[in-house]
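Re-run requested by the PI after the first attempt was lost when the workstation crashed. Everything re-entered from the original request form. Ligand of interest: adenosine-5'-diphosphate.
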Amino acid sequence: MERNNCPVIAVTNQKGGVGKTTTAINLAQALALQDLRVLLVDLDPQGNATQGVGINLETIQGSVAELIRDRALPVERVIYKGDGLDLIPATPLLSRVEREMVSMTNAELRLAQRLQPLRSQYAIIVIDTPPTFGPLMNSALNAASQLIVPVDSSYFALMGIKELLAEVDEIQRGTNPRLSVLGYLLTLVDPTNIAGQTWDTLVLNFGETVFETKIKRSVKLRESPALGKTIFHHAPESSGARDYLGLAQEVMERLGIGEVANLGKDTRPALSVVTGVAHE
Ligand SMILES: Nc1ncnc2c1ncn2[C@@H]1O[C@H](COP(=O)(O)OP(=O)(O)O)[C@@H](O)[C@H]1O
Ligand SMILES: [Mg+2]
């Protein structure tokens, strides 16, 4: 039987604080609200995405680090089952494993290989990436079919993109020729000229690849990670929730996977995100 490979979207930018984790979590949840089976993979040793969906790092028994390190580990052991949204978490162990990767065979292809069998089980896989180039970032670039590049609306925002695209080009020439940019996403948007200028420059450089949806700066979005809740659980009526539903719609359109049914007023999801219990 033909195996169906779902899209694997890595949310990438080697600059920290641009909204990668916020985007990975809330896009994943917004897609899960469309009745899609979504897997969120946390690939940052800081575990911000993991904590952001309500998992306490100290309770984690299996994570993406073990998945990369131990070929014999069944992938199910590191999947935390949620309501529509499942998670492969990350803990600080991942920084040790990243250092070990220099002596592992095919280290930077392992994540792709480990995720491959899951691509027939989910409608979409979203990877949150660390804010540095290196073996983990390369693992994400090899595992991904497409990238979403969040760009914060600051004066210096665009400077790193060229560098990122050079890395992407390298990966395309080598191990992942089909990798492409699904879209550039303007984040942390204030009602200032700077945001407008960043937007204009983005569009000038990347045209329609820039998502029409912009993510506005919002207190609710900033509050929600500390509560271990996505924006849809913390403030489903907020502008942040609307922005991320809009992004989900554009992402689904670009990927050709269905309609967003949930753009109306009632965007309230079921209550639990991830249960915190690793699946046996
Ligand atoms: N749209 C937003 N409005 C307000 N705060 C935001 C928004 N997006 C992200 N933040 C906050 O900015 C900080 C950096 O965002 P984060 O998603 O962690 O970036 P990254 O993963 O790229 O380092 C976090 O404190 C986060 O809560
Ligand atoms: Mg992050």
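Saved to the shared folder this time. The two ends are 27 Å apart (CA to CA).
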